[in-house]
Every structure is written in structure tokens, then in C-alpha cells.
Amino acid sequence: MGRTKTLINSDLIELVESDLSEIKDSDTVIKLKAIKAAYSHNESEVASIFDIARSTLERWAANYKKFGVDGLKNKSKGHNPSKLSQEEKEVIKEWILSGKDSNGHQVHWTLKRLIKEILMVFNKEITKTPLWLTLTSLNLSVKKPRPKHYKSDEAKQSEFKKNSRKA
Q: Can you give the pTM of this predicted structure?
């Protein structure tokens, strides 16, 4: 024996039938037909025919009863807005292009260092992926410089490059 149908009654079915003739959206029509079928059949059977959970069918009926056809339409989910303002993004871009931090010290930027600097200067926590997406939107890419020994001498290296091709 199934549960008593408290959500779906004859008044609701009349509304469903009137809305079915006017709606063109196929997802909404399917949901309305499922609600209509649940009035005359067992909710569990209807849910299995439509390949949904019984709780989903009940939620559709409750949303339809409360909001009408708009309650059955799919709603956009949106996305998380950026934590950084446009001005802050421009400051970060300037840091990276100049190779200097907020205090003017020379820095080799990594995502980890940039995250720490943003937390220190703007007091905003940001993780690697959103930061990487922000850098991509600013037309910047993460590149590693060639390794360089701390005792290397630029003059000797350029002299070596010049002399090595003479032979």
C-alpha cells in the first residue's frame, strides 16, 4: 500500500492539464506528465517509469503547486564570482610583468608566492585554480625560468657563447 497522496489532488491535475496544452518546453512537459500520472497511479511506479526517484517526483509536485510552471523550469546555476576586483587584478599583472612584489623587491613569481602576496596585501584568500584562471584571463601564463647558479657570471657566459662558435 502506497503513501497517501497529499500533494497531488484533482485541483492540481486540472491545472496540469490546462498548462500542458500551452507549454512547448519538453522538460517541463515531461515533469507535468509525471505529476499527472502520479495522481492515478502509484508514485513509486511512476518514478520508475520516468527513471527518477520518488522524492524527485514529490519535489516536482511541490514546486508546481507553489510556483506553477516556473517551479518546474530548469534554473541557471551561475558561477562563483571572482574574489579579486579588476583593480587588484591589474596590480597583480603589474607585479608579474615587473618581477617585483608590493614592496619593490625582485621576486620570481610562483603561484604559491602569489597566493601569499595576495593574502598579505589584499587580505583575500585564493586557491591555485582560481588564481591560475585569473592569470589566464589576464593573458599571462605560468613559465619556469631556466635554472641559474647563484655564482654565475653573465660576462663570462656571454664571452663563452661568442668564442664557442669561432671553431
A: 0.47
